[in-house]
Specification:
The protein is of the alpha+beta class. The protein has 14 helices and 22 strands. The protein binds beta-L-arabinofuranose and zinc ion.
């Protein structure tokens, strides 16, 4: 199928890499990878069966569809919700569109047709569409761009339209999106209106719309917006921003858009600044969970190493925005370091954003919780996920990201096939010469590091199979058809197996899954003197439900026990949807620290006595699924 063909089902992946001359890797269609009953497969099933229908009901209940109906005259009612709430419905549609790229979802068709019809009918003749800047606010159109979210909403409309077109070939929403994009192109640009939206998003969307339609002016308009300072906070354009500052979701989206722009144009200045900003992220501003954002106020990045635990902002959308950036950087570079961060976000700070049932969501994802304590208000009073937030950006964002995961498992390149995320699946890849290769992955990852890959090329073919070896996987080994692989396997790179592959060839990869203890940079105040427990890609936490011997804040790990041999890993299929827990030795003070005075002279202090106890750690993503309780990721270490 040719690129930009009328029917959108032409082989595009989560990001359509087929035009971009500067992509090293080609993303594959979401539908070409079928997830089984591994880690992500059941979560995607929950997404489709529980999360997506429940969220539409919530959006309906809170007026998100009625806001369109009232404009079309199909319902008489007041407009409800924040000025950006149109984007919630658009993101929900995008989630459906991406999920439909895996399976047709006949049960969603009617609802989708209904909301699409309302959206299309609500569009102005000039292409403009907003349920907020209409009627008595119509004169304000594009006059409040710093806060108005008009282009933010437009961007989500475009992404929804592209996803639906890619899934079904249907053009109704795509035409609405094109109408709006054409209108923006008339109004904005050099010598016209030269401002941009205070919330980036339109840039990403215009580039994907360009990819779906072939209309170069959309790419040019995205380039124009990228070249302008961000109107909120007057932040420098992303190609010139000296560090990560400001609102984290906005930053993540604009960085992702910058990467897309580089991929299409080869703008080296953009790429070199994105690399600098990436270093700032991973070396100074990202939580160990992959969470992003220190400040609730302004939902912003903090200073370098300013990563508070219980007061972390780490909005689910911020993690998603940075996963989008990581994915694009991986596609551009083929560098495993981006896959490592993508994995860290997905299994930890992203996944914590949704409950195991799939119907409740966190907005912030703190690294410590003390319900009833002084920090209670800092998380908007909530230590439990909710089915609805008045700003409900995160739930549909979670849904579209979950639906996208099959498209981020593997890629192809002129050399062969890359596997980035290990999960039980069956995939059909196409080599550059058109040869079809079926790839079967059998694994219990992330609970187990044994991964068996079976290749079935339709004919004998020489190509490279490249498998990401996470940076934590020291001592990984591999076998090809039962023979040990001789080359040294470097953590933080791709194991490159170039040979003639025949039907039924197998590769067994063994990633060591020892418990790891990770300490933060000493300037991370809330982690000083502490470690986090990690195993494979999973970051652990201790929660009061499993640790009743003492308040969570009392529990310490003895320094001499920071060795994997002192710890036990138990697979608990019945717990939290099936997890591995990590159990090990701990110390608690007697009496509890709870009785200590706030301040005392060190010479007056009674020497506390430590008593041996044990802690049980669960995956961070699963916390707060058994009611409210204390939790922490960073656990103090005691030398005694
Ligand atoms: O402003 C729209 C969305 O609401 C942002 O992306 C989130 O951070 C939340 O503020
Ligand atoms: Zn959000």
């Amino acid at each position: 199928m040719s690129i930009g063909a009328d029917d959108g089902r032409g082989g595009a992946g989560v990001v359509d890499t087929r035009r971009g001359a500067f992509f090293a890797l080609q993303s594959v269609p979401v539908g070409s990878v079928a997830l089984w009953d591994g880690f992500w497969g059941p979560r995607l099933k929950t997404n489709v069966e529980a999360s997506i229908p429940a969220l539409l009901a919530e959006i309906e209940e809170h007026g998100g569809v009625d806001n369109f109906r009232r404009l079309t005259g199909s319902k008489q009612c007041e407009r409800r919700g924040p000025l950006y709430t149109d984007s919630d419905l658009y993101k929900w549609i995008e989630a459906v569109g991406i999920a439909m790229q895996s399976a047709p979802l006949p049960e969603m068709k009617q609802a989708l047709a209904d909301v699409t019809g309302e959206i299309a009918a609500a569009q102005g003749e000039d292409g403009y569409l907003s349920t907020y800047y209409v009627e008595d606010r119509a004169d304000l159109r594009f006059t409040q761009l710093e806060h108005s979210h008009e282009m933010y909403c437009a961007g989500h409309l475009m992404q929804a339209a592209v996803a639906i077109h890619r899934a079904t070939g249907a053009k109704e929403l795509l035409n609405v999106a094109r109408g709006f994009a054409d209108y923006l192109d008339e109004v904005f640009g050099p010598g016209k209106n030269e401002t941009t939206d205070g919330h980036p998003e339109i840039e990403l969307a215009l580039i994907e719309l360009y990819r779906a339609t072939g209309k170069k002016q959309y790419l040019a308009l995205a380039g124009f917006f990228l070249s302008r300072p961000q109107s909120l906070g007057n932040l420098p354009p992303i190609a010139h921003r000296p560090e990560l500052i400001g609102h984290c979701v906005r930053s993540g989206y604009i960085c992702a858009a910058g990467a897309d722009y580089y991929a299409e144009t080869g703008d080296d200045g953009m790429l070199s600044n994105l690399s600098l900003l990436w270093d700032d992220l991973v070396n100074r501003k990202m939580y160990i969970t992959g969470g992003v954002g220190a400040h609730h106020l302004g939902e912003e990045f903090g200073e370098a190493y300013e990563l508070p635990a219980s007061r972390a902002y780490a909005e689910t959308c911020a993690q998603i925005a940075h996963a989008m950036w990581a994915w694009r950087m991986l596609l551009i570079s083929g560098d495993a370091k981006f896959g490592d961060v993508l994995e860290r976000i997905l299994y930890n700070g992203f996944l914590s954003g949704v409950s195991l049932e799939g119907t409740e969501y966190f907005y912030s994802n703190p690294l410590a919780a003390n319900p009833g304590g002084a920090t209670h208000r800092s998380s908007q009073g909530k230590w439990l996920r909710q089915s609805w937030w008045s700003t409900t950006c995160c739930p549909p964002n979670v849904q579209r990201t979950l639906a996208s995961i099959p498209g981020m498992i593997m890629t192809t390149s002129p050399e062969g096939i890359q596997i980035h995320i290990y999960d039980a699946c069956w995939a059909r890849m196409a080599l550059q010469d058109g040869t079809a290769v079926d790839v079967r992955v059998e694994t219990r990852y992330p609970w187990d590091g044994e991964i068996t890959i079976t290749l079935e090329p339709e004919r004998e073919s020489e190509f490279a199979l490249m498998m990401r070896i996470p940076a934590w996987a020291k001592g990984a080994t591999a076998e090809i058809n039962g023979e040990p692989e001789q080359q040294e396997i470097e953590p933080g790179s791709y194991l490159y197996l170039d040979r003639v592959w025949r039907e039924g060839d197998t590769v067994k990869l063994h990633l060591p899954m020892a418990v790891r203890f990770t300490r933060p940079h000493p300037y991370v105040a809330d982690g000083r003197g502490c470690v986090a427990i990690e195993r494979g890609p999973i970051v652990y936490c201790i929660e009061s439900t499993d640790n009743i011997s003492a308040p969570i804040a009392d529990l310490h790990i003895p320094a001499e026990k920071l060795t994997p041999d002192a710890w036990v890993v138990e697979h608990r299929p019945e717990l939290l949807g099936g997890v591995c827990v990590v159990r090990g030795p701990a110390l608690k003070p007697v009496p509890s620290f709870a009785g200590f005075r706030l301040y005392e002279d060190v010479t007056d202090s009674e020497f506390e006595k430590w008593t041996e106890t044990e802690i049980t750690a669960i995956p961070y993503y699963a916390w707060a699924n058994r009611g409210e309780g204390q939790m922490r990721v960073w656990i103090p270490v005691t030398e005694c």
